[in-house]
Design a protein that fits this description.
Quinone Oxidoreductase, Chain A, domain 1; metal-binding; 16% strand; globular; 6-stranded parallel beta sheet; Rossmann fold; NAD(P)-bd_dom_sf; 9 strands; 11 helices; alpha/beta; Zinc-type alcohol dehydrogenase-like protein
């Protein structure tokens, strides 16, 4: 918790070069050292240095960047829900912000909007594309609106929460209620047989969590189910692009590798790189 914050610099360490006391800053959630090979390539969310998690090293084979206010898997750093907070690697974790702009207009730049833009970059959404977005939470809604900004001709908003679907419709999207259409891939293909050009998964494993799987995970047997990913692969046109930016941490029960390879799909995943966006 506390991954998004805006504050005013009260004190700076001796190694901080770009900030001064009194600067207003957007505090980015992704920790980056700024000096490793990944940071030099501006792939800050893959930083080699900022995450000491042994658990991630064992489970993934590598460690990606630490995140403020996250679990031990991403470094276990405290969040920013406090009157004062220490921001490590401040030159790469803070962005200067104007003093005359309301905080609520800037706050989403730290995570929500930067993640949304990164998702669109991963999917390579372009002018005229038909886009399907799984998830209508803050990031999903931001993806949908920014897809329109990038020229998408049509955006399907897929969720089961009626309030979020209503908001998506108010923003000009085409809402699809998963509760009304449990087999979302078949429904999408029934209204658009050729499939969507670009698909983005922004809900993560939470969108299909079931008590039985939660119990399995608690016993050490559970894995994440891939209903959204399976639906996306089937509902995306041949040669289409898919971006996965929802929270997935473990392994899956199955992956539709046949449709993925035979349809010549491109699937890319990755967390936000707010410093670059």
């Amino acid at each position: 918790m506390g991954r998004e914050a805006i504050g005013v610099v009260d004190e700076v360490g001796p190694n901080v070069k770009s900030l001064e006391i009194g600067d207003r800053v957007i505090i980015l959630p992704v920790r980056a050292c700024g000096h490793c090979d990944y940071c030099k390539r501006k792939e800050y969310s893959l930083c080699d240095v900022s995450n000491p998690s042994k658990e991630m090293q064992i489970a993934y084979g590598h460690r990606v960047a630490g995140i403020l206010g996250h679990t031990q898997l991403r470094g276990g750093y405290p969040g920013n829900q406090a009157e004062f907070c220490r921001v490590p690697n401040a030159d790469f974790t803070c962005l200067k912000a104007p003093h005359d702009v309301d905080a609520w207009k800037l706050l989403s730049l730290s995570d929500v909007d930067s993640t949304a833009w990164h998702a669109l970059e991963l999917a390579e959404v372009r002018d005229g594309d038909v886009v399907g977005v799984w998830g209508c939470g803050p990031i999903g809604l931001s993806i949908q609106r920014l897809a329109k900004l990038r020229g998408a001709s049509m955006v399907y908003a897929i969720d089961s929460d009626p309030r979020r679907l209503q908001r998506a419709e108010e923003f000009g999207m085409i809402p699809i209620d998963v509760a009304a259409h449990p087999d979302i891939r078949e429904y999408l293909l029934s209204i658009r047989p050729q499939g969507v050009d670009k698909a983005i998964e922004a809900s993560g494993y939470r969108s299909t969590q079931q008590p039985s799987l939660a119990a399995m995970r608690a016993s050490g047997l559970g894995r994440e189910i891939t209903d959204p990913v399976s639906a996306i692969i089937k509902a995306t046109r041949k040669g289409g692009n898919i971006a996965l930016v929802g929270d997935f941490f473990f392994t899956t029960h199955d992956f539709p590798i046949g449709p993925f390879t035979q349809k010549a799909l491109t699937v890319r995943g990755g967390q936000s790189i707010p410093q670059r966006v």
